Amino acid sequence: MNKIILSMLVLASASTLALAQEAPKAVVAKAAAPAVAVAKKAPVAVKVLVGTVKSVSVADAAKGTKSEIAIADKAGVATTVLVEKTTTLYDAQAKAITLDKIAVGAGVTATYVVSAEGLNKAKSIKVIK
User: Fold this and answer.
1) What mean pLDDT is predicted for residues 108-128?
2) Structure pTM?
């Protein structure tokens, strides 16, 4: 008797699933995308600069200045890099430091990218001596 009742329940469940119909999906007309030429961005080149610190500027919101560090290479040509919140700064022992710990005259290695606006944005700066 139990087998008959169980069989009837299974059969009823299976027939319910077989007869169920999916609700019709709403048809949404898609507008044709406008033909726009997409300019491909040039790959960002990462640059490395090894040199001596010539100046360090810490950001001052009141004056509207940004944090920057000027680094002179072996030829004496100075390059200024923007130090952002995402820039990582390390001492010679590879420990994290803050910008105020980098002294004028210190040897550094800076890894940076040049933005579309022409700004040298530092990714990392490491004191080497």
Assistant:
1) 95
2) 0.65
